[in-house]
Design brief:
CATH topology of the largest domain: Alpha-Beta Plaits
Distance between the termini: 84 Å
Order of helices and strands: HHHEHEEEHEE
Number of domains: 2
Largest sheet: 6 strands, mixed
Number of strands: 6
Strand content: 5-15%
Radius of gyration: 28 Å
Number of helices: 5
CATH architecture of the largest domain: 2-Layer Sandwich
Shape: rod-shaped
Length: about 160
């Protein structure tokens, strides 16, 4: 029995089934990509800010609960580090705690415009607390009024540590 041309060809049904299988695979990959894609590139920053905000409100509520025992509540600070200043930020956290400043959470990476040098931003009426924090940090930390663009932290003070 000889093989004819008709028997050598791949049936059209097999080709169609291969294309259908590929279409299903690509549709599944596309759906997976759309379902797991992070649409907000700053999601990690917002998650960290939410964590710091929750810690700051927890620290503020515990500070207000203990306000009857102490005459003044310690200011709450959020600490951020500029690129490559992680070790300096950890040192600043230790210095702030030693100086009587409550630190909310761990130092996070600063994603905004980087100021020159270490800066302590403060909310209205907290300039004395900011000066206390800057003195605790040392190393030429400057004190500035908190601009409206700095919204990453719900604490009283925002400390951005430079190298």
């Amino acid at each position: 029995m000889s093989i004819t041309d008709h028997q050598r060809r791949v049936p059209i049904r097999a080709i169609i089934m291969i294309f259908v299988a590929l279409a299903i695979a690509f549709a599944a990959l596309g759906w997976h990509s759309a379902a797991t894609r992070d649409s907000d590139p700053d999601a990690a920053l917002h998650a960290q800010a939410a964590k710091v905000s929750a810690a700051a409100s927890g620290a503020a509520s515990s500070a207000s609960a203990s306000a009857s025992a102490t005459p003044a509540a310690a200011p709450v600070a959020c600490v951020f580090s500029q690129s490559g200043a992680g070790a300096a930020a950890r040192s600043a956290v230790a210095a702030l705690k030693k100086g009587g400043v409550t630190v909310a959470g761990d130092p996070a990476a600063w994603k905004g415009k980087a100021p020159r040098g270490t800066v302590v931003y403060y909310a209205d009426g907290l300039d004395a607390a900011a000066k206390q924090a800057a003195a605790a940090i040392g190393a030429g930390a400057t004190v500035q009024v908190r601009p409206g663009t700095v919204t990453e932290c719900a604490g009283d003070l925002v400390v951005i540590v430079a190298k």
